[in-house]
UniProtKB/TrEMBL annotation:
Official protein name in the record: L(+)-tartrate dehydratase subunit beta
Keywords for this protein: Lyase
Keyword Nucleotide-binding found: no
Organism: Limosilactobacillus oris F0423
Family indicated by similarity: Belongs to the class-I fumarase family.
Length: 203
């Protein structure tokens, strides 16, 4: 396991050696984008109102404090379940050129294909750290698609050392969760065999 510090814009070359299980800390531009944002891009064919090419998105519905003069403060930004975006993510990545997909939990084969074909990473932010995560958002520089409401708005954030982010799908399309599941099943079968040998006298 290795630790990497990435700063946007991020190139394919920057992430080619990063593998599942590695740790990433992100500095630069990160945009929150969840269900409705993905739906607008993929199903409705709208252009993202903010350029996320070679940058990062976060599957999250943050809590925002509204300040005077159209200023905002991030109060909490816990990731939401990424699998909800699985039906959109392959096309979303291809259309937008986003390089890092950050969220909670595993994603499926569509995202894995996107990571392999378009050279992106899927990463998981540890759950239960929404307030801590907000401390690494230095500034909210813009808000797009505000008609969607606070959770679904595209909050354009400037972050510093945002992480730790665990790489769960790499540019080979390897999936950390699938690998761990296979390892679990292998160990389970080994234990079942041992137990069966010890209790074979039972009829």
């Amino acid at each position: 396991m290795k630790t990497y510090h990435l700063t946007t814009p991020i190139s394919a070359d920057d992430i080619k050696d990063i593998r599942i299980g590695d740790i990433v800390y992100l500095t630069g531009t990160m945009v929150t984008c969840r269900d409705d944002g993905h739906r607008r891009v993929v199903k409705e064919g709208l252009e993202m109102p903010v350029d996320v090419k070679d940058k990062a998105i976060l599957h999250a519905g943050p809590i925002i404090k509204y300040l005077p003069n159209n200023q905002y403060k991030m109060v909490a930004v816990g990731p939401t379940t990424s699998m909800r975006m699985e039906m959109f993510e392959e096309e979303f990545v291809h259309k937008t050129g986003v390089r890092l997909i950050i969220g909670k939990g595993s994603m499926g084969p569509g995202t894995a294909r996107a990571c392999k074909n378009d050279k992106a990473l899927q990463l998981v932010y540890p759950a239960g750290n929404a307030v801590y995560a907000a401390k690494h958002v230095e500034k909210i520089v813009d808000a797009k698609w505000t008609d969607l409401g606070m959770p679904e708005t595209l909050w354009v954030c400037k972050v510093k050392d945002f992480g730790p982010l665990i790489v769960t799908i790499d540019t080979n399309g390897d999936n950390f969760f699938d690998a761990k599941k296979a390892e679990f099943n292998r160990r389970k079968e080994e234990q079942i065999k041992k137990i069966s040998e010890q209790v074979q006298f039972i009829k």
